[in-house]
Amino acid sequence: MKGIEVRNLVKNYGDVQALRKVSLTFEENKLYGLLGRNGAGKTTLLNCITGRVFPNSGEILVHGETALENDKAQQKIFMMSEKNFYPDGMRVRDAIKWTREFYPGFDEGYCMGLAEKFGLNTKKKIKSLSTGYGSIFKLVLTLSTNAPYLFFDEPVLGLDANHRDMFYRALLEKYSEKPFAAVISTHLIEEVAGVIEEVIIIKKGEIIRNQSVDELLATGCTLSGTAATIDSLIGDKNVLGVDSLGGLKTAYLVGQIDPSTLPAGIEIGKMDLQKLFIHLTNE
Amino acid sequence: MNLKSAVKYQVLDGKVAIPVFYLVVLCVMALLLVSTSDLGPGGYVNIGGFEMGTIIFLFILGLNAFRETFRMMIQNGVSRKTMFLSFVILALVLPLGMSCLNEILLGIGKAMTAGNDNVTLQSAFEQIYAPRYIENLGTMQVVLEGLLFTICVSAAAMMLGYFITTMYYRLNKAGRIAVSVGVPAILIIGLPIFDAVVTGGAIYRALGQLTLFAMGGPNGYNPYYAMVSSLIAFALLAGLSWMLVRRAVVKD
Amino acid sequence: MNLQDERPIFVQIAEYIEDGILSGAFPEDTQIPSTTEISVWYKINPATALKGINLLVDENTVYKKRGLGMFVSARAAESIRSKRKKEFFDNYIDKVVTEAKKLGLTQEELVAMIERGYDR
Predict the structure, then answer these.
(1) What distance in Å separates the CA atoms of residue B104 and residue A222, rounded to the nearest whole number?
(2) CA A230 to chain centre
(3) Do the beta carbons of residue A29 and residue A179 sit within 8 Å?
(4) Residue in chain C nearest A173 by alpha carbon
(5) pTM of the model
(6) B44-54: per-residue pLDDT in tens?
(7) What is the rounded average pLDDT of the residues B68-81?
(8) Which pLDDT tens digit goes with each residue over B77-108?
C-alpha cells in the first residue's frame, strides 16, 4: 500500500475554493510535474499533505496511514517551498545539522559536496541569502534528505540558467543512483518536460490531467497551414486552441490525425507540453 | 523517534539565553557581595529573592517557545502533538535544572556571607515562608521545599508564557488588539474602579484571600499549597495551550 | 538533439547512439553510455533513456553484459547501415522531392544539385 494517496480533498479559504475534491496518487520512485497557473491550488495541495494547513474534508494517506499529525508518515516526506521556515539567525550549516537530526537518512557528505558545487556558503545566515541562493539552499537540503517523497515547490525560483541546469542534472543523477518520488511544482514547463515522467495539471482547484507525459502528448497534435484550409479541417474536431499569424494558423487538437488524409500544404506536428498546458488552462 | 530530536532542539534553542542569565546572576551576586563586604557596624542588609529572576526568565522563555519552533518542526516533519509534548518535557526539566542550580548558588552565597553579620542572603521562598521555618532554619527541609516550590512555580510560569504566545498566534489582528488593550484595561482600570464603587472592595478582598490560601498562608504558611496550586495552573494552561496548538496553521 | 524535434526523444537517443556506432565512436564490443549518463547529459527522465536503449536492444544493435552495461553488438554498424538504406527513401528522398516540387524545381535541376553534392 505504498505511495501518497489523496482522496476527495477539499480546502477553502473563506469564499475561495482552493481545492475541490482533489484525488490523486503519488507513486513511489516516479518524478511528477505538478503544473498549474498561479493560484490554481498547487501549493495548497502540497501544504495539506505536509500538514502545514488543515483541509476542510478528504483524506491523505501515506503508505496506507493517515498523514494528519502522524510523525512516521511525515518523516517520509520533505518539502521545500518559497517560504522560509527556519528561525531568524540560523545559519545554513546549522540547518543542515538539524535536518540530519530529524531525517536519519540524511547524507551530509553529499549535501556539502552539492553545496560546494552550487557555490553555497554554508556559514551564511539563511535570512541573508539572495532569492536564488535561498532556493539553492533548500534544494540542496531536500536532495540530501533521502526521504522517499520530495516536494519541490518552485525549486528554481531566482536561479540563473547555469544553476537550473545543475539542479536538473543533480536531481536526475540522484534519482538514477537511488530512485525516490519527487513532485516538482513549477512554471518552467518546457525545462521540466523531459525530466518528469508523470504530469498532473491542476486548474482552479481541480485536477484536469493526470497521466504520463508520453500519454498526454500522444493525445493531441498540431495542424499548421493557411487559415482557410485549417478552418475547414477543424470544424468537426476537438480543438483546444488556435494560434494565428497573418494568414497562417496553427490548431491544437485532441486526438490523432492520419497524415495521409491531409491536403497538401498542411503540416502535422506533435504537441509540446507547454502549449498543451497553456491551451488547457486558458479561460 | 523524533520526540527526542524535538526536545534536543528546544533545549539547544536556549543555549545562549540560559548561560547569559546565569552570568548576569553571578555578576549581580558578586557585586552585592563585594559592595556589602565592608559595612561598618549598624549596617544591615537582607538580600534575597533571586529565584524571582528565574521565574520571570522562564516565563519569557515560554513566551518565545512557539512561533519559530513551530515553523521549524513543521519543516522537519514533526507533528504538533510531538512538538507540544517536547515543550511540556522542557517545562518540567528546565525548571528542575535551574532550580537546582539556584539552590547551589544560594548555598555558595550563604557560605560566603556567613562570616559577615551585617549581611543575610535569603531566597524569596525563605522570605515568604519564614514563619514556617523559625525552628529549623538552615536545614535540608528548607532547601528541599524551596526547591520544589521554585520548580512548580517556574513551570507554571513557563506554561503561562506559552499559553499567552499560542493564544496570540491563533488570534487574528482584531483579537490581538482586543486582548492587548482589553485585558490590561480590565485589570488595571476596570476591575479596581468597579470594585471600589460597586462592591466596596469585596472583590479584591476575595482575591487576596484566594491568593493567600493558594500559597498556604492561613494553613501555617504551608508551601505545599503553593506547589499544588502551581501544578493545577500548569495542567490547566497546558490543556488550553494544546487546544490552541493542535489547530495552529503555518502563516506567512 | 532537442525537444523541438518532431520525433520522440527516445527515438533521437537511439539514433544518436547509432550515429556513434557508424562513426566508430562506439566500436564493436565496447560499452555505450549508461542510462544514467544519458539521462543526466540530456536532462531527461531515465525511463525515456531506457526506452531509447531498448529500441537498439530490440534490433540487436546492442546487447547487455550482466553487471557491466550495454555493449555494441558484432557487425552492428553494418546492420544499422542496411536499415537506414531501406529507410533512406522515406526519410530523405521523399521529403527532398516534395520540397523541390514546392519550389518548382524540375527533376533535372534536382539531379544536377545532387551531383553537385557528391562533387563537394
Answers:
(1) 83
(2) 34
(3) yes
(4) C40
(5) 0.89
(6) 666 666 788 89
(7) 96
(8) 999 999 999 999 999 999 999 999 988 888 88
Contact A267, A223 (CB under 8 A): yes
CA angle B180, B183, B184 (to 5 degrees): 85
**B68, B71, B77: residue with CB nearest A74:** B77
Spell out the domains of chain A, with CATH numbers in brackets.
4-213 (3.40.50.300), 219-281 (3.30.70)
The H or E element containing residue B93 is helix B80-113
Q: ipTM of the predicted structure?
A: 0.91
- CA torsion B9→B14→B16→B20, rounded to 10°? -160
Whether B70 and A86 have beta carbons less than 8 Å apart is answered as no
- How far is residue B115's CA from residue B119's CA, in Å, rounded to a whole number? 9
Query: Contact A134/A84 with Cβ under 8 angstroms?
Result: yes
Cα C119 → chain centroid: 25
Percent of chain B's residues with pLDDT above 70 = 90
Per-residue pLDDT reduced to its tens digit, C4-50? 567 788 999 999 999 999 998 999 999 999 999 999 999 999 999 99
User: In this complex, do C36 and A195 lie within 8 Å of one another by their Cβ atoms?
Assistant: no
Determine the Cα–Cα distance for residues A250 and A267; give it in Å rounded to an integer: 9
Q: What are C50-74's pLDDT values in tens digits? A: 999 999 999 999 999 888 889 999 8
The residues pairing with A25 across neighbouring beta strands, listed in sequence order, are A5
Q: Are B169 and B161 in contact, with CB atoms under 8 Å apart?
A: no
Probe site for chain C from A172, A214, A272 (most C CB atoms < 10 A): A172
Among all residues of chain A, which has the CA nearest to that of B250?
A52
Selecting from B2, B71, B249 the residue whose C-beta is nearest the C-beta of A75 gives B2
Say how far apart CA C11 and CA B243 lie, in whole Å: 59
Q: Where are the domains of chain B?
A: 2-245
> Is residue B233 pLDDT above 80, yes or no?
yes
Q: How many CB atoms lie within 10 A of CB B38?
A: 9
Closest CA to A270 of A228, A229, A197, A213: A213
Residue A208's H or E segment, with its range, is strand A206-212
Cα separations (Å) of B14 from A202, B58, B201? 44, 10, 43
Domain C9-76: give its CATH architecture.
Answer: Orthogonal Bundle (1.10)
Cα gap C72→C74, rounded to integer Å? 7
Contacts of A68 (CB under 8 A, 6+ apart): A51, A54, A60
Strand A198-203 with A31-36, pairing: parallel
Alpha carbon separation from A99 to A146, B21, B80 (Å, rounded): 11, 29, 17
Give the β-pairing of A238-245 and A248-254.
antiparallel
Subunit partners of chain B (3 or more CB pairs within 8 A): A
Specify which residues A252 forms β-bridges with: A222, A241
Alpha-carbon span A90 to C80, nearest angstrom? 59
User: Which of A114, A171, A175, A176 is the mutation pick for testing C, counting most C CBs within 10 A?
Assistant: A176
- Average pLDDT on A132-158 reads 96
Name the grid cell of A24: 490523486
User: A265 and A229 in contact (C-beta within 8 Å)?
Assistant: yes
